[in-house]
Amino acid sequence: MLNEKIVSLLNDQINKELFSAYLYLDMSNYYYDEGLDGFGNWFKVQAQEERDHAMLIMQYMQNNGKKISLGEIKAPNTTYSNHKIPLDESLKHEQYITESIHNIYDSAYNTKDYRTMQFLDWFVMEQGEEEKNSEELIRKYELFGTDSKGLYMLNSELAARVYTAPSLVLE
Ligand code: FEO
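A: This is the predicted complex of the input protein with MU-OXO-diiron.
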């Protein structure tokens, strides 16, 4: 059912989601190194969600009898000169991922691949959530993060984030 262009785009998306997980783990490690364990936790949970996204796409491809070819995941290779940079970078990254999901959606739409469109609906919604979360975090940091007491409180709030499995379940 799935055409080869969609298969190739989904396959690339798996790599992008796994790279997202890798990038967020890198940011998580940066914050742990800086003594901001709450920020570290927030990004660690984010990385777990990204791995889930990759797993869901793999499951979808397998359910449709398509072969998966896992590519190399590039190293994040980043150094951050202040605490706000990873927050800005992660928003930029989410915007890039949104564009990528929309691009697959466009191809599915153009080829009347309703099954893939329906599958991607969840990802379109999820990307809206992720961009909103990133924007909120930047806003909170701008409001409170530059003051040491505020940063302490924000760090404690972020330490409370717990991983929850995705609401989309594929059999
Ligand atoms: Fe899976 Fe944050 O995009």
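The domain at 4-159 is CATH 1.20.1260.10 (Ferritin). The pocket of MU-OXO-diiron is lined by residues 17, 20, 50, 53, 94, 97, 130 (CB under 6 Å).
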